[in-house]
Specification:
By secondary structure, the chain is mostly helical. It contains nine helices and two strands. A two-stranded antiparallel sheet has the order 1-2. InterPro entries: GntR_C, TF_FadR/GntR_C, Tscrpt_reg_HTH_GntR, WH-like_DNA-bd_sf, WH_DNA-bd_sf. One of its GO terms (molecular function) is DNA-binding transcription factor activity.
Length: 237
């Protein structure tokens, strides 16, 4: 990693760091299965904060170049497993693009919630339980809370028993979590956090109960409200 250079503050730092690490992976400096240096080491190497490094790792995760294991670190993925979907994170800072992104999320995630209610197994129920509990217990919402939120949506995708929902919704969830960290102030109000947790609890309850209609409705309300919290108005019909 010593071959990397510190970056200019005028650059979009997470993107540039992701590009630098991605280049290292492409050039073979990191092989499939290799663990990347820790956030602390990367932050020192590039001369940035750890939060900037987290955004860069999220970009790489979006591209399928790395996978993260909670409490362990980020690992380089097998090239055969890497995603080909690409959406520049900077585009989601544009209100029109962000609205279009949520319009895409709405039908996909509502149907995913319905399918999850029909096809969930005890394994996915446990994963949803853990993710919801992680949201409730999070001390720093924009770190621990958003990670638990991401885990919830991944578990929901897995509960559909459809591999393509896992791929697409995993990608969407990653983009959404990065957008939240970018657009929200560092501290989120307790009321917003509690409302968000309540929306996920409603989805969780419906999925566990096997009520597809209620699960779809709860997800629809969550997405409409999530968009509104980001200043995006979606059709509620």
């Amino acid at each position: 990693m010593s071959s990397f250079q510190q970056l200019s503050r005028t650059e979009h730092l997470p993107k540039r760091i992701a590009e630098e690490i991605g280049r290292g992976i492409a050039e073979g400096r990191f092989a499939a299965g290799d663990k990347l240096p820790t956030e602390h080491v990367l932050a020192q190497t590039f001369g940035v904060s750890r939060s900037v490094v987290r955004e860069a790792i999220a970009e790489l995760r979006n591209e399928g170049m790395v996978e993260t294991r909670q409490g362990v670190g980020a690992f380089v993925t097998d090239p055969q497993r890497r995603a080909t979907i690409r959406v520049e994170q900077a585009r989601l800072a544009d209100p029109v693009s962000l609205r279009n992104f949520f319009q895409l999320r709405l039908p996909l995630e509502v149907e995913a919630a319905r399918l999850a209610a029909r096809h969930r197994t005890p394994t996915e129920i446990v994963a949803l339980d853990l993710a919801l509990d992680g949201m409730v217990q999070a001390r720093d919402w924009l770190d621990e809370g958003v990670k638990a939120d991401l885990a919830f949506h991944r578990a929901l995708a897995a509960a559909t028993q459809n591999e393509f929902y896992v791929i697409f919704l995993g990608f969407i969830a990653e983009k959404t979590s990065t957008t939240i960290n970018t657009l929200f102030p560092r501290e989120m109000g307790a009321e917003i956090v509690q409302v968000t947790i309540g929306e996920h609890a409603a989805i969780h309850s419906a999925v566990v109960a096997g009520d597809a209609a209620r699960a779809g409705g709860a997800m629809h309300r969550h997405l409409i409200n999530s968009a509104a919290r980001l200043g995006i108005a979606l059709e509620a019909g």
